[in-house]
Specification:
Low-confidence stretches: none
Radius of gyration: 26 Å
Number of helices: 18
Distance between the termini: 45 Å
Strand order of the largest sheet: 19-14-13-22-23-34-33-30
Amino acid sequence: MTRERVAVGIDVGGTFTDFITADGAVAKRPSSRGHPGRVLAEGLDQLGLGGTRGLSLAHGTTVATNALLEEDLAPVGLLITEGFRDLLALGRQNRPGLYDLEPRPACAAPDPALIAEIAERVAADGSILKALDLEAARAAAHRLMARGAESLVICFLNSYRQPAHERVLAEILRADGLAVTASAELAAEFREFERFSTAWVNAGLMPLLGRYADDLRRALDLGGRSGRRMVVMQSDGGAIGLEQAAREPVRLLLSGPAGGLVGAWAGAADRERRRLVTFDMGGTSTDVALLDGGPPVVGRAELGGRPLLVPILDIHTVGAGGGSIARLDRGGLLKVGPASAGADPGPACYGRGGPATVTDAHLVLGRIPPGLFLGGSFALDEAAARARVGELAAQLGLGLERVALGVLAVAEATMERALRRISLERGHDPRRFALVAFGGAGGLHAASLAARLEMPEVVVPRDPGLLSARGMLQAPLRKELARTVLGRALAEIEAAPARAFADLERRARAELRGEGLAAAEILVERLVDLRYPGQSYELSVPLGAAGRSGEAFHLLHAQRYGFARPEEGVELVALRLRARGPAPRVRQPRPRRVSGRPKPVESRRLVFEDGAGTCPVYRREDLGSGQELRGPAVIVEYSATTVLPPGHRLEVDRRGALVIRRAR
């Protein structure tokens, strides 16, 4: 690859923004919520690419996620079918807490002053019962904008079946220069509450992501004469162009964590490892997922209390990261997270007056060498860490190291529950899976967590703190479209799949061609959403020949829920089409094979639950393929630190990954 066509993966996290090139050059910069473009430009400068033309940038961000979880959405004007103004406020009336005597809504309802009922009605079969009064609807939209709405969402009943009213109104309002989301354009599926919720969230994110995209364009000089191009990671593990990301930001809600799953699968999976549990621990949170044959994509999710009809990787997130704050609650009990110190002020050891965190506890216990953090470019203040953790120790009346161990134990209890939720609670035996640990802090806890769940091995890929950024480099351009077809016979679809999927395939191919792919590069996968009659939710399976789709559904249903009813027929709910381009090639350098025992760079006193002692510290770049270590030990590298506890052994495999197993 020539220097003029360098590809760079960029992962914007809550604490650090990570950069990695296709040939392995890496950088980290503290994140900034107020100036993201500046941080990205500084990272390119650090890589020596600040003035390089023709860069190909693959980017993942938590901006949309944070805005939704913090209810920091822009004011949205809601244009909804007459008689349904309260639909989003009522929802499904589910009660998450069955015995809660004073239940509160999981999320805020739309502002009643920004809702306009529109005279129109489409029947469930798609026939028009009441024609749209276009001029009245246009006037209502402008009134909502005058009242303070920053974007508009059009939510008409049964538009999934007949989108004409939404489409024509959206075209006129966009011609007026307004930011508009039409529910059927985003998710042409039934269940009006979920469809409207998805569109409303998208509209609320559009102004924020529009400003974010503008900031990136200015700071990075995207497009035009520079020849620089950016794609953005979607929640389903594929990529879309920056323009579409700004129009459909609801597709970015798991943008950052999705990169980690793509990178983990590409870097850790081989013929021997097809069952993985991913453990991505960063500065703010921990993301876990179970990969049985590949990254798991689902057609709907719930985030921030809002249901969303968008394809999304099945990732579970908990508020436990290296920056999670340790404190005492009102009852005097030790709590860790979910609040995080972030990048500013950061943990106490950053020397900016921050609170005691998980990172500070590791420093107190000797598990992070303060002079080797980020390759020695970011010196940690061990005295500040000991002082802050010491304050907790004084309040609890316990020793400094005992409290630091307690901080780690509380954090690991949260992470262990997350791992159990995606494995044991779903019928998967964790003893049959390898734990892939990444993120800046994943290697500090992975061996301990794997031992608790009796997992056979831990795999720490190369550059673990930058794996999400590497995954973004490896993500193909991708589109997933769905359309509800209730009432259609499955046999009819199986007999003529090309005709049934023609409209979806035409749209997907056009959008991917617009992103620069050639027609021959586009791969298409057809799926159907099926269920047993009377069920409320469905499962997606690949479309097969006559009867094969139903057989696949019965097998998947048995795997997911523990039973199947093959004697019953299946009901077709929706058609789903996944189209993608080729996965970009990223060079994976193979480590040199080295014999003998590596030399440690220093020795440190490490503290574990069963005692303390002086242990060696190794640089990862000094470890070659085939070398073995026995714990206790610490392995440091630019992006992460890995702890090898007592009773464990480590081997460097042919890919350069650290494979940790319990010693026999």
